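Tokens help. Consider this.
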Amino acid sequence: MRIERVDHERPQASAEALRALIPSGASVRPEVSEIVDAVRRGGDEALMDFVVRFDRGSSPVRVPTEAIDAAGAALRGDVRAGLEMAMANVAAVAGASLGDDAELGLPQGQRVRIRELPVRRVAIYSPGGRNPYPSTVVMGVVTAQVAGVEQIAVCAPAAHEVVLGACALLGVDEVYAMGGAHAVAALAYGTESVPRVDVIAGPGSLYVQEAKRLVSGDVGIDGFLGPSDLVVLASGDADPDLVAVDLLAQAEHGDGTVVALVTNSESLLAVVEARLAEGADTGAVAGLVRVASLEAGCAVVDAFAPEHLSLAGPSAEALLGRDFLAGCVFVGAVAFGDYVAGSNHSLPTGGAARFASALSPRAFRRRMAEVQIPEAAALARAGAPLARAEGFRIHAESMEARVRENETP
């Protein structure tokens, strides 16, 4: 693991130094654009070329239902129990975030009903570069199910058995053994064997996320969920072994991952640095930031806006409840959030926590108004002049045409 000491004189400079460690999607943009365009124009023929080339797969890409059912039946008991706990907890947290429909009457006589409806068809992307991620299947599929989505597909490179087993537990029988930018393109635009979807959600490589960004004008996405990052804000009374193991755990995500320790304790920093140096080289980068105070540390956190923020040590933990700019805040091992805590592990990365949120049912729902206008006179008196002021004469006539004969427009 590469370990970097970064500027700690100014919070913004420290955050920028940490952010510079994160690889940018711009580096793969030209290649991703070519792949997406090829699949959009070439359909299955182009898709299968990429599947053979990048996924080492073959046609057909959709995994047979029998294979999914068999994988579900073959799940090891402890793995099944873990998945079932994750499914229940994610469903409980997701369900708490659903909004209710509303209906109201307005003074001019019209009634407006606001409805929140699920999109009809979504795809959950489960990465498969270094390891299989059945946990991502749970996070995405359960959240979509809570949102009320009826058609859910899973895209899983290599279609590992434990991923198929999770799909079986969740009742998902549409699984595609493909990954990368070509998979995103196929899901966004459809091919002869892959029906298009309305929303694509899930983390993945720079290629996957850049492809999601590229197709986002034509399909909904949950956001840019690229390489993982974690900031541990630790006070001097934190346990250095726990801090180090949390950083090393997140570093397991590999290339592009950035983990950082922000602390006002030089002695803690030195001990954790030594622990990190002893860890396995996963390709991740660790940033070490010493600040004058925990308040200065909070400023670094907000400027960086991490995907995960861990508060370590009693003094730092006392800051829980502060309005941090972070995807998810933890007191306790961040790894619980990756699996069974109930919070979603599909989180905004690369500083997007300033404006974006964790995956929730809202990513799979749309709001729609239904308007009934039994009496048009008052509305026409107000609306028609506005339409004419904008140069839309027929708009005005359309409103006025709804006024009954005995009404005065």
DSSP finds 15 helices and 14 strands in the chain. Residues 29-55 form the longest helix (27 residues). Residues 41 and 189 are 9 Å apart (CA to CA).
